[in-house]
Design brief:
Layout lengths: L2 H37 L3 H16 L36 E3 L10 H4 L5 E4 L5 H17 L3 E3 L15 H4 L2 H7 L6 E2 L13 E3 L7 H14 L3 E4 L12 H14 L4 H17 L3 E5 L4 H7 L6 H12 L10 H6 L7 H10 L7 E5 L6 H11 L3 E2 L1 H4 L2 H8 L2 H14 L2 E4 L4 H12 L5 E2 L3 H9 L6 H11 L25 E3 L1 H24 L27 E2 L2 E2 H9 L11 H8 L1
Parallel strand pairs: 2-3, 2-6, 3-4, 5-6, 7-8, 7-10, 8-9, 10-11
Antiparallel strand pairs: 1-12, 13-14
Helix pairs in contact: 4-8, 9-17, 10-11, 13-14
């Protein structure tokens, strides 16, 4: 009888010990889980931390490095040693702009109908109107019509009263294109009275056949004078080769700025060159309107939400976006700090001079402070010219935009933070005139890297930036012919020096075989990296006709993000919204 209580007591002690062990194990697991959660937050928490970090980073003064005291993310003041020239595009010397008409392209006097006139009313800001003027010349050629000098948009968001002669050299425009299209300054009088043309609108991306089917019959029925309204992107992207080359002759040769703008622009460029042999021009596009349209969150809390929300209410058709989704898809402009970090990672040191073309920056000097700390030599037209010098241009947004256009066009490196019309036109122009470096952030890939940058060294960060930016640096053949907008990728007008390129490729193969033979005789295992040749020996020439894979995925896929995907985002039923965003 005494054994039974003892056995019960023994079972009780064993059960109690088991409960204690289970409790200890459970507590340990909970502590471990909490520790891991702290180290590796969820993606949403990580993104929100990153966005809050933007707000605090705007208030941080960055000197020789932008980093927390205890962080390994330390930015060197110099650009570091790179295997490339940061001020030029590799292989650019083998390509050149070519836009001369072929022998079969008839002269204007032979094909122009004597009483057929085409008038054009452009739309949008300076650069959107520039695309319209370029396409208007081609449209007149398709219709065998005389072109009336296009009317500029004076009523849209920009409210600029300038006419064609205030912005462009009209006499040069007419004379340069005289062999291609007959152009007159105004419609002739009819019966002693002003001739009022019939107005109509053609659809976007209207092809050659579209013009012949839609506009020509109206021209013939409506007394041979038609005005096409809201003329922006009203011509197909793909046309006959001679018509594409005509586009290039208009855009890159016939459209020259009026002398007052040209002289002021040259003076601004000269003042940048006096400060430094090289300079970067940055089209920042971090204005309140742009951020409101993007629907992105930049960590400014309720204040930012209310301020940008008030702007969004001006546009009834603007859809509300998911900020995280917009950022993941690369549709959010980089912050000024992120642009600065990208450029430093690409090898541009703190001594590099930067010209910023921008309107009012959201957050003002606080937002710009990290960028200025990364690049202290920071300028704009307002800082290198006096108010008196800028006086004739200040009241005219298109003339001010033209000054920025000139300084950006003449820069050694152009950086764009969006894919609007100025960015597109300058990208195409810089390809045509020598493939000068033109950098567009690969925002879709970079955003994750910016999120995690404080968890890596600067060397790791900069290496990843350089990898992700391949295909976004303005190198020859980055974008396949025919992809994207023609104004951005004028492939028909870019010719290759095949003979010189062939010789370089042959030399490259010879050197490669010779090095392999040498290494075989020495019976030494050589890594792929050691087999790379110095850039001074021979330019590397990747075959971009094949689909190449890198860490950022298929080249064709991520290049399509450069040119084609963004345009639809700025086509809107709100004329003011579209005009404001397009440039």
């Amino acid at each position: 009888m005494m054994a039974l209580p003892r056995r019960r007591k023994l079972h009780y002690h064993r059960l109690r010990s088991l409960v204690q062990v289970v409790s200890v194990i459970s507590g340990t697991l909970l502590l471990l889980f909490a520790f891991l959660s702290f180290l590796f937050p969820s993606p949403d928490e990580s993104e929100h931390f990153h966005l809050r970090h933007h707000q605090t980073s705007f208030n941080a003064v960055v000197k020789d490095s932008v980093s927390d005291r205890n962080s390994v993310f330390k930015i060197p003041s110099t650009g570091g040693k790179l295997d490339r020239d940061i001020w030029s595009s590799k292989n650019a010397k083998f390509f050149y702009g070519c836009s001369n008409a072929s022998a079969r392209f008839a002269k204007a006097e032979a094909i122009t109908h004597p009483t057929r006139y085409l008038a054009i009313a452009t739309s949008g800001g300076l650069n959107q109107q520039r695309t319209g003027i370029t396409d208007a010349v081609v449209a007149a050629r398709i219709l065998n019509a005389t072109l009336v000098v296009p009317k500029l948009d004076q009523k849209s968001f920009w409210k600029d009263a300038s006419d064609f002669t205030d912005i462009f050299d009209v006499d040069w425009f007419i004379s340069f294109l005289s062999k291609d299209v007959k152009i007159i300054k105004q419609l002739p009088k009819r019966g002693g009275r002003t001739w009022t043309p019939y107005t109509m609108r053609v659809p976007r991306k209207c092809s050659e056949r579209c013009y012949l089917n839609r506009v020509l019959p109206v021209l013939l029925k409506r007394h041979n004078a038609v005005q096409l309204t809201k003329f922006d992107y009203r011509l197909a992207n793909r046309l006959d080769t001679d018509l594409q080359k005509l586009r290039c002759r208009v855009n890159y040769h016939a459209l020259q700025f009026a002398n007052p703008i040209l002289e002021m622009g040259k003076m601004l460029v000269h003042r940048m060159r006096m400060r430094s042999k090289h300079y970067i021009a940055l089209h920042l596009r971090f204005e309140p309107d742009m951020l409101a349209f993007s629907g992105c969150d930049y960590g400014g809390g309720e204040k930012e939400k209310n301020e940008l929300g008030a702007i969004q209410k001006r546009w009834k058709t603007l859809h509300k976006n998911n900020p995280d989704k917009e950022r993941r898809q690369g549709r959010c402009p980089l912050t000024p700090e992120e642009v600065g970090l990208m450029l430093r990672a690409l090898g541009y040191g703190s001594d590099v001079h930067i010209y910023v073309a921008s309107g009012e920056v959201y957050g003002g000097d606080e937002t710009l402070r990290p960028l200025k700390a990364l690049f202290p030599n920071f300028y704009s037209k307002d800082t290198i010219a006096t108010k008196e010098e800028l006086g004739p241009f200040l009241s005219f947004s298109s003339r001010m935009a033209a000054l920025d256009f000139i300084v950006c066009d003449e820069s050694d490196v152009f950086v764009t933070n969006n894919n609007g019309n100025m960015a597109r036109i300058l990208a195409g122009r810089r390809k045509y005139f020598g493939h000068k470096p033109t950098i567009r952030p690969n925002a879709k890939k970079l955003y994750r890297l910016f999120l995690s940058r404080n968890n890596m060294t600067w060397e790791e960060f900069s290496s990843r930036i350089r990898t992700l930016q391949k295909g976004f640096m303005g190198e020859p053949k980055e974008v396949r012919p025919g992809r994207g907008e023609f104004h951005e990728n004028p492939s028909t007008c870019i010719c290759e020096d095949s003979e010189a390129m062939g010789k370089v490729k042959a030399d490259s193969r010879h050197k490669k075989h010779r090095k392999l033979d040498d290494s075989s005789r020495k019976d030494v295992m050589v890594s792929d990296d050691q087999n790379d040749y110095d850039d001074n020996d021979v330019p590397e020439w990747p075959d971009l006709d094949e689909d190449e894979e890198d860490e950022s995925g298929s080249k064709e896929k991520h290049l399509s993000n450069v040119t084609g995907s963004d345009y639809g985002a700025v086509i809107s039923d709100e004329p003011e919204l579209e005009a404001m965003l397009s440039d």
